[in-house]
Amino acid sequence: MPSADHEFGPQNLGHPTQTVTRQPRDRSPEHAEPSRFLPHVQGLRAIAVLFVVLYHFWPGRLSGGYVGVDVFFVISGFLITSHLMRELTATGTVRLSQFWARRARRLLPASLLVLLFCAIVAGTPYLMPISALQNEVSEIIAATFYVENWYLALNSADYLNHAGDPTTVQHYWSLSLEEQFYVMWPLIMLLAAWIGVRSFRGARRRAVLVALGVVTAASFVFCVVFTITDPAPAYFVTFGRMWQFGVGAMIALVPLLRVRHAVGSFVLGWAGIAALLYAAFRFDGQTPFPGYMALLPTLGAAAVIAASNADRWWYPTRLLAIRPAQFTGDISYSLYLWHWPLIIIAPSVPFWGLTIWHRVSLLAICFVLAWLTKRFVEDPARSWKVLTTRPARVTLWSSLAAMVLVAGVAGGAWAVNAPAYREGVAEIEQLRADPPECFGAASVLDPSCAGVSFEDIRPDPGFAGIDRPEHPECFVQLNDARPVSCAFGVDDPDAPTVALIGDSHAYQLLSTFDRIAQERGWRLVTWFKGACPWNTTPLSTPGAFGQACTQWREDVGEALAASDVDVVFTAALATTPYSAAGYDSAHDAAVAGYREAWSEMTDRGVPVVTVVDNPVWETDPNKCLRTHDDASECDGARDDVLVADDPLRDAAAGLADVTLLDFTDVFCDADACFPVVGGANLYRDQDHITVTFADSLGPWYQAALEDALAVRAP
């Protein structure tokens, strides 16, 4: 996250022989020694923020742009350590209240402005679905009090793989982490300096260097291990990122690391930029990150900072100092704050689409907003005399009051819309319990429903996001390899047993199959793991996630072998990435893997039923449905949203004991696929169907299972 600081590392980091000048009480003593502006570090900010922003606008084009955040961490470590060390050397201490007050004046005004904007948008149903309100309000409050990174870590958010529905403030995780750094870092340095004075003959600087070196090394080891064992929270956890601040701190504390030799600086600077570009274009959501892979962008940023010679125009230090780079670096903080909420909100704005021109226009709007915020919010707030001429506690208490105000607005958004939220939930429950005749899939599959039409879309596009299965405890995610099994339906051990197995596209059928099992007197047992279909071919996903999927499959296979299952139903996302090793293509590998997994059951005489995957959209169709009266305006081109060669279809071809259900004609015609069919809202997000629509397919699922059980019966 780009810091708003613009005072850059010193010529000297402070030596005991320097003269100390008494500072006015309204200024932080971190300015006790002169510092010089380093334009190339400001230019590095520009590279970092453009990486992040372009990654969010075009993730397929700049798949590793998320490393821009790592660059910001290194910059912050360098700058803040420089400031603190100057103050420690000059005065023997750090006036924490002054330091924290300065950080608050620099960072909070723009941050809270954007949070206030997001809170207002969250309470506006026309721009934000009411089904998202609960998550929006929770994360706005978490971001306001700088614990968003921990909120996401504890809720298993998967930043790189875009799991779930991101809120308008998800990007505040990095700002939260930086604020925690601002609290902990000076405390660590103060403690180390005190130990240096008390126990090491006044070796304050050496003690600080050793302490920060130990913290950096320990954090890096923790980061590598935690990324292997649990990568989703590892992306957000504070201690797993401290080493990146520490790398910047080492450049600030060790003068030998700042290269002023012309050739050395030239080579080091360009090598750093090359490393950053490689990471930005070659890393992607499958890269095990942060972990050891974060070394590349971290050391790349450090190399650019360390390259100090600016004698020639072709040196990176000079090129990063050109005016466009300086301007972008100047507005980087506000640009980072504004771009993500606008990306989330834009698809819900009437007459706004997702074409290249819409994206470019939105990017331009982000730059304009960032400049306006810098000019009229950031800069004035830093020198606001009502705060700077008073004790630091005035700034700190005022900041807390502003934070409480923003949190109150977010809470007010929930209070105003809570009745509508509860009504929407109740309507979905009623719709599931008593759907109208010819609703949903029946309007296509039931000949008696020909010509029946519906005026309303149900569930409402503002509530479709909550129309999802219950029992998340039965759904295993990320690196969790436990073969968690749940039982539904009837308790009679002699009842026919149906197994429902697969990834989230199998899990989306859970509520429907539970209802069928209860009505038919069946037992239903389940095994679900996110992004891990029931298949023996390894995923192409490297690292711990791919390994967890393989382990889960093996354990589920053992559980199935020991169970008395009468029929297996499985479903899977058609775009799952499989390893092509040993096959002509990943598609052929997936087909072979499905057949091998199924044969473990069909060889025992247990039939398998599967289904062709539903279309997958680029973005949630409900964003379009909320802003268009005619649902047909939200149709998607068949070639864009439907996988033509679903490996499940090809795997089932020619297998006597495997039944294939294909509802493609319900979702699509020859040219387009639909977000609404027979009055039913098909999707709760870009690729998962609503429980309401799955229920409308229930009679056809049930018929296929009954036929399979009839074959299984002795």
UniProtKB/TrEMBL annotation:
Organism domain of life: Bacteria
**A GO cellular component entry from the record:** membrane
Keywords (alphabetical) are: Membrane, Transmembrane, Transmembrane helix
In the UniProt record, the signal sequence range is none
Biased composition regions of type Basic and acidic residues, renumbered to the chain: 23-34
Q: Where is the SGNH domain?
A: 484-699
Coiled coil (UniProt feature): none
Which residue ranges are recorded for the region named Disordered? 1-34
Q: Domain Acyltransferase, which positions? A: 42-373
Gene Ontology MF terms: acyltransferase activity, transferring groups other than amino-acyl groups
An example GO BP is: lipopolysaccharide biosynthetic process
Q: Where are the transmembrane segments?
A: 64-86, 107-128, 182-200, 207-228, 234-256, 263-283, 289-310, 331-350, 356-373, 394-416
Please state what the protein is called.
Peptidoglycan/LPS O-acetylase OafA/YrhL
